[in-house]
Amino acid sequence: MSISQLHTGYQTELANFRVTFSRGGAYTAIVLVLLGVGLDYAQYPQLLTPFAIARFVVSLLIGGIILMLGSALGHRLSPWLTISWLLLPQAMISWMIWQTDGVQSPYYMGLNLAIFAAWIEQF
Question: Domain coordinates of the chain in residue numbers?
Answer without folding.
Answer: 3-121
